[in-house]
Design brief:
Blueprint lengths: L2 E6 L4 H6 L3 H9 L1 E2 L10 H7 L3 H4 L5 E2 L7 E2 L4 H5 L7 H7 L4 E6 L10 E5 L18 E2 L3 H7 L8 H4 L4 H26 L3 E6 L1 H18 L7 H24 L3 E5 L3 E4 L2 E4 H7 L8 H14 L4 H9 L6 E2 L11 E4 L2 E6 L2 H4 L8 H13 L2 H5 L3 E4 L16 E4 L4 E4 L5 E3 L19 E4 L4 E3 L16 H11 L2
Parallel strand pairs: 1-8, 1-9, 5-6, 5-8, 11-17
Antiparallel strand pairs: 2-20, 3-4, 4-12, 6-7, 9-20, 10-19, 11-18, 13-14, 14-16, 15-16
Helix pairs in contact: 3-18, 7-9, 9-11, 10-11
């Protein structure tokens, strides 16, 4: 194999170097590690696979549906790569160079594209298969590669909440099996199809980082002496990943190695709900209590429907995950915030059939920015609002962009519920997984992803290259064109 990309979802250099991972550390010590920065909204894996930012691909962790509603979606898939004339997906670029390829579990690649070699699609990107145990149609190319996955008891994905597993040993055993079985399946498929380029992405450690980052931070202070059952299993999971990487390199002997992640990792100390601030500014009106009560009753009634019936209904709809907006009176609202988006959207007529005319958008934008930056909370929590969408009017997906961007520490996550700024009261020692109530419990994404390359590959970094994950595509393209 000429080049192998080892992807570690959420791989954070500080965490990885603190764990007992001799094989990975030996690789990183021989490589050049580049300090990139992400905005934590554009999808990192999509940047690697397309070479361009989400502004030109539409690959965001959450974005408005622009269907006449104020709903948001997480959806991004192989079809979005194929239907965008600005994108030559990495696998297509490599095939044009005449290379056989082998991809496995890289998110945003459902369904698997046809390639010379093999392609095992990754979940996420808003796909319904995120967190799935079974291997659905569309995951494998060629179709017969499914037999190899079954042979190695391949686990497509594991998300804490949807897994239903709350026992520490059972949950960590599953994560360990997920990364070990994935490694074995990738090795077997690579030996069968002999690709010149391979790309394998791991997800197990990022699942843990999201739910028990408070325990990881404690463990990092004394990595060789885990103090609790959860810390012991965290320690072992990173050791297991290290052994997987050792086996991968030992069996495939790649000429070049790239170790990369889609983002880093951070503790989640607080949340920001821009809707509260906008209501205080009189830029937004909540729905009357009677309407909110009706909505709540409808949700409660839905819970009375048997789980299997709800699952069957869910499986019958397209593979898109939507995010409904909070209870807002849109007829009296001039701006709003959304979960996962560190910014503010103007409720304009052009995109949302809202209350703000096109000629008013810049004025309303500036009014909100000035008021926000003057708040004590913004100063205290290092938040800074600035114009955003107006700077990218020519972008292909300019209509998806928030009008205002808010710079913020990694440890702050943007929500659409709760107080304006709310401390994460869950960030504390975790004694049992039964106390964990969501997939992002004490952890969040970090803006500095991992990118370490062989010194020989550094010559493919050019002046003027952006120092974000789109650089990975460019390095691979230039190196594999030789």
């Amino acid at each position: 194999m000429k080049m192998l990309v080892v992807g570690i979802d959420g791989g954070d250099q500080k965490i990885l170097k603190s764990m007992n991972m001799p094989s990975l550390k030996a690789i990183l010590n021989e490589q050049i590690c580049l300090e990139l920065e992400e905005d934590l909204w554009s999808r990192g894996w999509a940047e690697i696979l397309s070479g361009i930012h989400g502004r030109e691909t539409g690959a965001f962790y959450s974005k408005p549906k622009l269907d006449g509603s104020h709903d948001f979606t997480k959806s991004f898939s192989t079809n979005d790569y194929n239907n965008n004339d600005l994108i030559v997906p990495l696998w297509t670029k490599l095939l044009k160079f005449g290379h056989k390829v082998g991809f496995m579990n890289v998110p945003t690649t459902m369904p698997a594209p046809d390639v010379d070699g093999f392609f095992i699609a990754g979940a996420s990107g808003g796909s319904k298969v995120s967190g799935a145990s079974k291997i659905p149609a569309g995951v494998c190319f060629p179709p017969e590669s499914l037999d190899d996955l079954i042979q190695h008891q391949y686990i497509l994905d594991t998300r804490f909440i949807s897994s239903g597993i709350r026992d520490v040993e059972t949950f960590f055993n599953r994560l360990a099996a997920m990364q070990t079985n994935r490694t074995n399946a990738f090795i077997q498929l690579s030996q069968k199809y002999q690709p010149e380029f391979g790309f394998l992405a791991y997800r197990a450690t990022t699942v843990v980082q999201y739910i028990v980052m408070s325990e990881i931070e404690s463990l990092m202070a004394n990595p060789d002496s885990p103090q609790t059952k959860i810390q012991k299993r965290i320690h072992e999971l990173y050791q297991d990943l290290d052994q997987c990487i050792y086996n991968l390199l030992d069996q495939l002997q790649p000429e070049y190695i790239i170790v990369v992640s889609d983002h880093g990792a951070s503790p989640r100390f607080a949340t920001v709900n821009m809707n509260v601030f906008l209501q205080e500014m009189d830029m937004q009106k909540p729905l009357p209590s009677s309407v909110k009560t009706t909505r709540r009753l409808v949700k409660q009634l839905a819970q009375l429907v048997p789980r299997q019936v709800r699952r069957n209904i869910t499986q019958s709809v397209p593979q898109v995950r939507s995010i409904s907006q909070p209870a807002i009176d849109w007829s009296q609202t001039r701006a709003f915030g959304a979960r996962y988006v560190s910014g503010v959207y103007i409720n304009d007529r052009e995109r949302f059939a809202g209350t703000v005319g096109d000629s008013e958008v810049n004025q309303v934008t500036q009014q909100i920015i000035e008021a926000f930056n003057a708040t004590e909370a913004a100063t205290k929590h290092r938040l800074y609002a600035r114009p955003y969408r107006q700077n990218y009017r020519s972008a292909k997906f300019a209509d998806l962009l928030p009008d205002i961007w808010i710079d913020h520490p990694d440890s702050i996550f943007f929500e659409e519920k709760g107080q304006f700024v709310e401390t994460n009261e869950d960030y504390k020692p975790i004694e049992t997984l039964r106390q964990v109530t969501r997939d992002q419990y004490t952890g969040a994404k970090g803006r500095h992803p991992l990118l370490c390359i062989n010194p020989e590959l550094y010559r493919y970094v050019e002046d003027g290259d952006p120092w974000d994950l789109t650089l990975v595509y460019k390095i691979i393209e230039r190196a594999m064109a030789q």
